[in-house]
Amino acid sequence: MIPKFLLVSVLLVPSLLTARPVTVSDLMAVRTVVDVRISPDGERVAYVLSEPSLEENEHAASLYVVSSAGGPSRRLTYATRLFNRPLPRPELRWSPDGERISFLALVSELPQVMAMDAAGGEPRPLTSSPTGVARYEWSKDATRLAYVASEPEPEEETRQKQEKTFVIHAGRPGRPTRLFVQDVDGRAPRVVSPPEHYVSSLDWSPDGRTLAYSASALGEYLENWRSRIYTVSAEGGEPTVLVGRDGMNSEPRFSPDGRYVAFTSTGGVPRMISSPGLHLVSAEGGDPRPLAGEDTWVREVVWEPSGRSLLFIPNEATGRGGEHMFEQPIFRVELQGLEGKTEIVTKGAIVAFSLSSSRDGSRVAFRSVGPRDAGDVVLMDLKSGASRTLTNVNPELEALDIGSLEVLSWRSFDGMEIWGMLATPPGHRSGTRIPLVVYVHGGPIGGFTHGLFPQFMHRPGQIEPYPVEAFASAGIAVLMPMPRGGSGYGLEGFRKIVRSWGEGDYRDIMAGVDHLIERGLADPERLGVMGASYGGFMTNWIVTQTGRFKAASTAASISDIADLYYLSDAGEFTEEYFGLPWEEAALYDAHSPITHIEAVNTPLLIQHGENDRRVPVQQAEKFYRALRKLGKTVEMDTYPRGGHVNYEPRLEKAIMERNLEWFERWIGADPP
Predict the structure, then answer these.
(1) Is residue 358 in a domain?
(2) pTM surpassing 0.90?
């Protein structure tokens, strides 16, 4: 008879032998569910799957449908190219009668609304916009589409471009995005919004007579925080201001009875340092009222059929704090009192995206991401709370030896509790010191969530430059801190770094490093730090403040905050933190890494996209040139065609491999 302890060992050995370390190639093969829509009758769920293609150098997308009862998924598209520039954004919908599935696909290289029979068959285009469709919605009777598209280029501008006499005039607004209505039978579309409105989102009233839409006065980045909500007849005419207060007012959603419009709003605050919450206004107009508090950043909203409650998903991890700040559950808010009564309807540590509901509201479908996976399609019964996972889009993950993920906290210099996540190598023994890399998130208003790509689970995660799981398989732990200024601490937390980048947030991060050294996990002689965008700023800042890190990697990074104000397409946001650079020159200089460049002794890898408009490449070149002049150890890679984020799979793979190689060179350990 085999002893029980030996039997357990025998059963465990095969899995240990077959599991293998995670490589960058494994991460590049991960598929992402990018859109989920349940059918009106609740019996089927359509979803779009994104898969990186190194051969085509793009993120390819395909449409699938699966029964709500479970079973294998059926692929519906093959030759059709779902819109994927730069990443898949199919805007998947069911027609309200459930007969068709629609989506954005490329027709003559432009995104158009296409539809196909729900049972399968060849898709056909429903729109032929000369500039392509950005967003769209079906009317509730399934006879019309409303969509957002840019106005065509003026003939004079086209002629000037052909003759090479066209001049770009600074400050001139781009072509407006207009709202169009088109009968599904193919009759010519009609524009229903005025040219001075840059439309961004829309919804139909239940009776099909009215459209609500959000729009700003200019198409510039910061105008997102200065948008209003309008209503207009579906036949056209003069629009009416429904919500005219200052700040961001967006994503209108009519209640099932048409009496109210729910929307996301910063509540009159026209600043980026804000938190768009869920608000409600009468469809006849009047004063809006908040439904969810100012610390809940809302993006996705679905009315329940009764009209007495809504489901929503928070964004930027502000829905919950403490140990739950890495989660993104689905909330329900009841329409009662001055503010709605809010409860969580999902269970467990999940990150939810792409929420949709059946017509009767009994079922919802969404993408659900767990701490150690990349997400799958989940069906949930709202009455019982029972849920079922309908897909397994990444079965290959079962063969990988994925490390452990721990949620932890520590006290910072002023007693504030700071939270973070720690990824450790598979099989790591407690008390064994190993190399540690600190991964600083972007933003500053940003953060991490559960999932294999902690900063980019809301998109195909391969755009993340730092392969956390590959680091763990190489024997390197990764600390992902959430310092003040970022998500998880509410609106007041955002404001804690006004006029003080690199002060409290820097000390929060270093307190986390000290905590892991005290725990006996981090080797103080093998520390690294990395980050992109604001995380790149913090990495640059950290290496000017301390020599404790033996290697650093910075991407899309800021070296001179004043230059960011002048050169970035969103540079005005620095004014919210520091004021105007010609009025606060000393403050800008004091908090810019370039000012303290002579203190750098850490080997630094700089990565930047040549076409980055958010943080122009001159920021990286400035830091690199100064470090070279000072004789410091520095290398710089500039990625052709790359922007603030790199979207080409070949570049994504090269960037991840470069970062892994860099830290293995300077602080690496033998893999577990």
Answers:
(1) no
(2) yes
